[in-house]
Amino acid sequence: MLRLVLFALFISVCASVGQQKKKKVKTESLARGWGVNINWVKNYEEGLLNAGVSLKPLMVIHHLLDCPHSKALKKAFAADKTIQKMAKEDFIMLNLQEETTDKNLAPDGYYVPRILFVDPSLTVRTNIKGRYSNLAYAYEPGDMKLLAENMRKAKRLMQHTEL
């Protein structure tokens, strides 16, 4: 009898630990290392909807988990307090590992990592670019000041855009 009670107790403890891990993994999976304190949307459609409702710009990060350039950018992005604060407070945030069907999110081609901004009127802001002319929306770990400035630019453009 005692063995049966202990076995039941063991199973219930294991089940509750599994539930806790499951909840943690779900939250972490949307962040994918880009910032756990940021509210990430699941997909592009949800991002567009939230941008329109909240009147905040959508920031779309295209990356791959196994790409060394994506990993390096992710590490710098997650470590930059200014970027993390703006991302959390002023943007709808989406990080994608797959391409969307919206060709406007690849104005100069399909490559990773790349970051684009979409305003609440659902216009992709192709005028907000990184420092490279051939890969206009690419950023590197050393470009965090430029990315922060581009985030501020996206916010300013939003304030001057009539919806």
* Strand residues, percent: 5-15%
Gross CATH architecture of the largest domain = 3-Layer(aba) Sandwich
Element string (H = helix, E = strand): HHEHHEEH
Q: What is the name of the CATH topology of the largest domain?
A: Glutaredoxin
Q: What is the helix fraction of residues, given as a range?
A: 40-55%
- Strand tally, please? 3
Q: For the CA atoms, what is the radius of gyration?
A: 20 Å
As laid out across the biggest beta sheet, the strand order is: 2-1-3
Cα separation of the termini: 70 Å
CATH superfamily of the largest domain: Glutaredoxin
Query: Number of helical runs?
Result: 5
**CATH first level of the largest domain:** Alpha Beta
Low-pLDDT ranges: none
Major sheet description: 3 strands, mixed
Large-scale geometry: globular
Please tell me about this protein's structure.
The protein is built from 5 helices and 3 strands; from the N terminus they run ααβααββα. It has 163 residues and is mainly alpha-helical. It folds into 2 domains: 1-31; 34-160, Glutaredoxin (3-Layer(aba) Sandwich), CATH 3.40.30. Belongs to the AGR family.
Write the layout of secondary structure elements.
Blueprint: H1 2-31, H2 44-54, E1 58-62, H3 68-79, H4 81-90, E2 92-96, E3 114-118, H5 144-160
Parallel strand pairs: 1-2
Antiparallel strand pairs: 1-3
Helix pairs in contact: 4-5
What's this model, at a glance?
By secondary structure, the chain is mainly alpha-helical.
